[in-house]
Amino acid sequence: MTWNEAFETFPVLETARLRLRNLEVTDAPSIFRYFSMDKVMEYYDLETFTSQQQAIDLIEGLLFRYETGRQIRWGITLKDDNVIIGSCGFHALEEQHLKVEIGYDLHPDYWSKGIMTEVIQKVVDFGFRVMELNRIEAFYDPMNIASRKVLEKNGFQYEGTLRKRFLNKGKFVDAVLSSLLREEYLE
User: Fold this and answer.
1) pLDDT, tens digit, for every residue of 77-136?
2) How far apart are CA 119 and CA 13, in angstroms?
3) What pTM was estimated for this model as a whole?
4) What is d(CA 16, CA 175) in angstroms, rounded to the nearest whole number?
5) Largest interatomic CA distance in the chain
6) What positions does the domain N-acetyltransferase occupy (predicted)?
7) Of all residues in the chain, what percent carry a pLDDT higher than 90?
8) Cα distances (Å, whole numbers) of residue 186 to 88, 125, 181, 182, 183
9) What string of DSSP letters covers 78-133?
10) Contact 88, 138 (CB under 8 A)
C-alpha cells in the first residue's frame, strides 16, 4: 500500500488492546460524550461541544476529508467493544513532501493508561511503513504536558516553540513543534 492506496479502502489497524477503525455518524454520541467535557477541549482548537449535532458535523467533515485524500482519522475502540473512546490520525497532508501532522484525542476515563502511546505507535508505523512518509509533525500547547510526554514516548523530538502560532478560542497561543523522521523511526 502506498500513499494513494491508503485512501482507496479505509485501513483498519489493531494493537494488543485496541482496534482503530473508520468513524461513522453513528459514533456521534460517543464523541459528544467526551467532546462536551471542558477538560478534554482545554487544548483543542474547538469550543466544548454543546450538542450532538456538532459531533455529527465533525464526523461528516472527517469522512469528507478522507474521501478527498486530505485527512485520515481513526476512531479508537477497545478490541472487545465497538464504542469510540478517542481518535487519532493525520491531517495537513503534504504528499509532495511526504509529510503529515498527527493529532489525537481521548476520553478522560482512558487517560494515563498507555492507550494513546499504543495508538500513536501503530499510526506512526502505518505512516512510515505503509504511506512511506518522511516526516510526521505534532503541534501542542506548551502547557499540555500529557501531550508532550506521549509524543516523547513515541520518539518525537522537540524542534521549537512557535510564538502565538494559532488563534484558539479567540486568543493567540504558542505551539510547540515536535517531529519524528522516517530514518529515526526505522533505525
Assistant:
1) 999 999 999 999 999 999 999 999 999 999 999 999 999 999 999 999 999 999 999 999
2) 9
3) 0.95
4) 32
5) 46
6) 30-183
7) 93
8) 21, 9, 9, 6, 5
9) ETT---EEEEEEEEEEEGGGTEEEEEEEE-GGGTTTTHHHHHHHHHHHIIIIIS--
10) no
Which three cell numbers mark 146? 500529557
- Return the number of other C-beta atoms located less than 10 Å from residue 50's C-beta: 10
Which triple of cell numbers denotes residue 62? 472527517
List the grid coordinates of 168.
484558539
List CB contacts of 65: < 8 A, sequence separation 6 or more.
71, 73, 91
**Contact status, residue 65 vs residue 136, Cβ threshold 8 Å:** no
For 92, half-sphere exposure in the C-beta direction (CA atoms, 13 angstrom radius) is 10
Three-state secondary-structure class, residue 6: helix
Q: Does domain 4-134 have CATH number 3.40.630.30?
A: yes
Whole-angstrom distance, CA of residue 13 vs CA of residue 87? 12
With residues binned 3-state (H G I as helix, E B as strand, rest as coil), the percentages for the chain, rounded to 5, are: 40, 35, 30
Domain boundaries, the chain: 4-134
Of 163, 162, 139, 164, the residue nearest 151 (C-alpha): 139
Place of cell 506548551: 142
